[in-house]
Amino acid sequence: MTLSSFYLGKYQVTQAEYLAVMGFNPAYAYGVGDNYPVYYVTWSSALKYCNLRSMNEGLTPVYSISGSTNPADWGATNDPDFLYSGSDDLSAVGWHTGNNTPLWLKTSWN
User: Fold this and answer.
1) Are the C-beta atoms of residues 93 and 86 closer than 8 Å to each other?
2) 19-46 pLDDT, tens per residue?
3) Which of 21, 66, 76, 84 has an alpha carbon 20 to 30 Å from 101's alpha carbon atom?
């Protein structure tokens, strides 16, 4: 299998960068500012951001919905618009401190 070349940002996407591409900043409550990383970004918004940024930079967008890589053709719906990749339930798609038990707690010392 061969992976085509791609660009990867050296740093997290800032709220200012996200705002410049998307026209809004989803971050609120804490850590809000141009140089802070953007957060509360849904999966579909992340795809849209990536494609729009690629288009703005003269690169070929890679994410496709209904055969189009242009987010303007994707329609207004974000259905489903999961908070996490594939689900709104973090435990269904991710491993985190709330759904795992450290090995030392599983070990029987008897």
Assistant:
1) yes
2) 999 999 999 988 999 999 999 998 889 9
3) 84
